[in-house]
UniProtKB/TrEMBL annotation:
Gene3D superfamilies: Ribonuclease Inhibitor (3.80.10.10). This is TILB protein. InterPro entries: Leu-rich_rpt (IPR001611), LRR_dom_sf (IPR032675). The keyword Repeat applies. The keyword Cytoplasm does not apply. Transmembrane segments: none annotated. The gene is Lrcc6. Keywords: Leucine-rich repeat, Repeat.
Length: 223
């Protein structure tokens, strides 16, 4: 009997030069939309409207109903290349509809603030390679268990205690400025006592010792 791969025996792999698309990006659907008529008019690009098929409001509404984002449980919206305001707004519109999503990947989208977004059932969130500078800019994720924030620009641990009342077990903060803070691991575990793993390393006995509070109150006396 022939193996399933027999039909591909004459095919070969080819490297496409000068192409930035990686294999894992092929699993990420594009959700970007073109500019609206008002946006094109504001930009003085009305000539593009002639090339675009006219779509009625009813057709637009029917298209949005078919998206069915509300019933999505796992979703990868990484590498969207959100280069304009109308693309960001449409992206956030979709995020607001993800009321049942449990696993969500938003890698490398140049995101800066999702604090207005609520993901009530999200248990796993990956927002690596974005532009977050604070934990306050993350979406509301009350059921989060695994959170990955690698390669952002989070400078301090301020706001991390907001996750104290969540079931957060695993947190990744690799390649953020806060990683170089003195007693970094002790501070994280003291704010998140239920956390089991930080940056891929399980909680160690030395991580349980209280942070050196005097470090924050050192004073210089001039006589």
């Amino acid at each position: 009997f022939k193996l399933p791969s027999d039909s591909f025996k004459y095919l070969g792999w080819w490297d496409i030069e000068e192409h930035s698309v990686r294999g894992n990006q092929l699993h990420c659907p594009r959700v970007r939309e073109g500019p609206s008529e008002e946006e094109l008019f504001f930009r003085k690009e009305e000539h593009i409207l002639k090339k675009r098929k006219q779509v009625t409001d009813a057709e637009k509404w029917e298209k949005r109903l078919q998206e069915n984002w509300e019933n999505c449980a796992e979703l990868n919206l990484s590498f969207q290349d959100l280069g304009d305001l109308y693309q960001v707004e449409n992206f956030q519109r979709i995020l607001r509809r993800l009321i049942r999503v449990e696993k969500l990947w938003l890698v490398d989208n140049s995101l800066t603030d999702l604090s207005a977004i609520r993901l009530p059932r999200c248990r796993e969130l990956n927002v690596n390679k974005n532009h977050f500078t604070s934990f306050k800019q993350l979406p509301k994720i009350p059921q989060i268990q695994h959170l990955s924030l690698a390669e952002n620009n989070i400078t301090t641990l301020s706001g991390i205690s907001d996750f104290r009342h969540t079931p957060l077990e695993s947190l990744i903060l690799k390649r953020n400025p806060c990683e170089f803070q003195e007693r970094y691991r002790q501070l994280v575990f003291s704010n998140l006592p239920n956390l089991k793993m930080l940056d891929g390393i399980p909680k160690l006995p030395e991580d349980c010792s209280p942070p050196d509070v005097s470090f924050f109150y050192r004073m210089c006396a001039i006589l």
